[in-house]
Amino acid sequence: MTSLVPHLVNGITLGLLFALIALGFTLIVGVMEVINLAHGSLFTLGAYLALSTIGAGWFAETAFGAWWLSLPLTGRFFLALALGPVIAGVFGMLLELCLRPTYGKAPLYGLLLTFGAALVIEEAIRLLWGTGEQNMPVPQMISGAFLMGGLIFSTYKFYAAGFAIVAVLLVWLFLERTPYGAIIKAGAHDSEMVRALGYDLSRLRLLVFGFGSALAGIAGMVMAPIWGLRPHLGIDVVIPAFLIIVIGGVGSFWGAVIAAILVGLATGITGAYAPAWSLMSMYLLLIAVVGFRARGLMGRRSALEN
Amino acid sequence: MSKIKITRRRLLTSAVGAAGGAAAFYGPWAHTRVHAQPSMKPIRIGITSDASGQYANSGASDRRGMMMAIAEANARGGVLGRKIETVHLDTETTPATGSRVAERMITRENCGFLIGAIHSGVANAISQVAQKYGVIYLNTNSSAPSEAGANCHRVKFVWDANGTNFAKASVKAAIEKYGKKWVLLTNDYVWGHSTSAATKALLKQYGGDMVEEILVPQGTRDFSSQLLKIQQINPGVVAAAIGGDDQKAMRQQIAQLGMGNKPVWLNNQQDWPDVYGLPLDNLFGLFGTTWYYKLDLPGVDEFVKRYQTMYPDTGMRVPGNVFYNGYFATRELLAAIERAGSTNNIKVIKALEGHKMSARDRMQHHDAWINPVTHQVEQTIYQATANVGTQDKDDMFKIVAHTSPQDAMDSDAAGACKLETYEATPTFDA
């Protein structure tokens, strides 16, 4: 049993990271009913933009770059944590503008468009930052490792898990405790009524897509020091994010969070005891959940089930 | 406008006639190529390197090597007076795509030769299609021992050293130096499995003790549970056969935990594109390679300059082992066509089989040769570690030892490899 405890801790940590990855995806699917296949590319873009912010990017060789790099890494890191996602959010808003002609048509149009956008963003990253592996520097205060129960754990990973908790709570508070959140949720339930009440639904969608994309960018920056950074990193993101919202129940915020933790636990524990099954475990979890409860853990009951 | 009545009889006769005509024209594929192509038509080579997926970055390096060899040959006037043309299709680091790409390159793009692979599953898939058509295929960079063992083919030549070669160069010394208690960390696909099988056999032979084998699925990005497990087992050595993006993520996470020095990490093979540009603390442990750009051997500096002249804008400022294999495989294929005096596949195969390459020519410490029984290039194996303290960002490796091809040879491969006969291999002129 004692040997299981570290793996449970690790699984929960991993689950929180999965929750962070799925957060923006959940928001866009839940509110807009658009499966954003560019989520992974926006995740990667956010990480690359953050990397350039930290390292002064294309200005590194200039006087400004030299001054910028002389500033403490901690300051640059946390500024990047804000700036990278904001720019990723702007890209998300541009994508939403492109998506508008697909609204009201078969979902395949939106899927194809976001898939195409994912390819374009990935290729743009290749052209701008190169194809090789990049390394995201981490401030001293959150890097390194610590001992717990005689085993070494990564300090940064726990920081990232803590950050995920804060991010989840902030998004929840935003959706549940602010008038903007109320409008967004109302828009998801009954868009016609929201429009009838005088709210600009187009602007609402634009902001939600931008917000979801910014969350993808934040997740990208937070995950890059753990997973590494390469142009096709997004591929590793979309599938877990999609599985998580299906397991949790499409449209359910806490369903997605719980599903993410379950996926983390499944991956973490099988990684230790049946490692060959560690990636497969999340698919088995999906089959188990959807097999017994087609709408996912906390998904809304469909009209057909009444 | 006159009406032509199409009866069933007429339709059938026309169809049979058309099919007969097509058969006469296209015929068995092998003959078509002889008749349909004038002898001075460019030689078409299909480049089957990965451009996306787990090995995209290595695939790009592989391709640069091939293209430099082809550019140099074209600058000399081509091969047998014929220019060389290339077609590249992305094999996506996926065996099924590899098969499709090979089929398309041979049947629709009229490629007479195929070159390129990083992923052993992809290489195996391509070589099965290539053998069906008799098209020579150079597996440039995939190093599963099975590639020149159970999955060998008459048309396939394997240019990288394999997992057994690397294990032979390191396992015995590592047992003596770091202890008998080993954990194997194995990528769960053909390269990982066949490499781990070679390591297990050597552990058994030299008295090592494999306490656990941890299988890592391809696409794993988080290694925390595996690393916790390793800490709980507390081995002396971890023999890792993890490749591509998986390995990059793993190295970063091990470095973050400060586990790079204990236990000792023995990475069977370290491809240059997988670590180039990473901080040196990510480059812990011992690892194998077939070439390094700072080897103190004649020709190396000039080779590096040629690379830099041809690729001034690439992010990878110096060539690595993957580029090296891509370059030499292609160059030796073109040289074999010259030696054969023909693009006939069987003649070129015979020109490659048993071919000896001097150490000086290949910029290695020992002469190399193409094993005629397995089609594996038997070559020098280098053991390297991080070049700690270097001021040169490119000079990341410190070569600590080298092993002759005779000592590193995969003796089991010859028993496992059953090459198809020449007669059973379709013949054609490319």
Task: Please report the number of helical segments of chain B.
Answer: 16
Number of strands of chain B: 15
Identify the strand order in the major beta sheet of chain B.
7-6-8-9-10-14-15
End-to-end C-alpha gap of chain A: 44 Å
Distance between the termini of chain B: 47 Å
Shape of chain A: globular
Helix/strand/pairing category of chain A: mainly alpha
Using a beta-carbon cutoff below 8 angstroms, give the protein chain pair with the largest interface and the number of residues from each chain.
Answer: A-B, 43 and 40 residues
Quickly count the helices of chain A. Answer: 12
- The low-confidence runs of chain B, each spanning 5 or more residues with pLDDT under 50, are 22-38
- Oligomerization state of this entry? heterodimer
**Portion of residues within helices of chain A:** over 70%
Overall pLDDT confidence of chain B: 90
Q: The biggest beta sheet of chain A, please?
A: 2 strands, antiparallel
How many strands of chain A?
2
Strand content of chain A: under 5%
What's the alpha carbon Rg of chain A, rounded to whole Å?
20 Å
Largest sheet of chain B: 7 strands, mixed
Strand content of chain B: 15-25%
Mean pLDDT of chain A: 90
* Spans where pLDDT lies below 50 across 5 or more residues of chain A: none
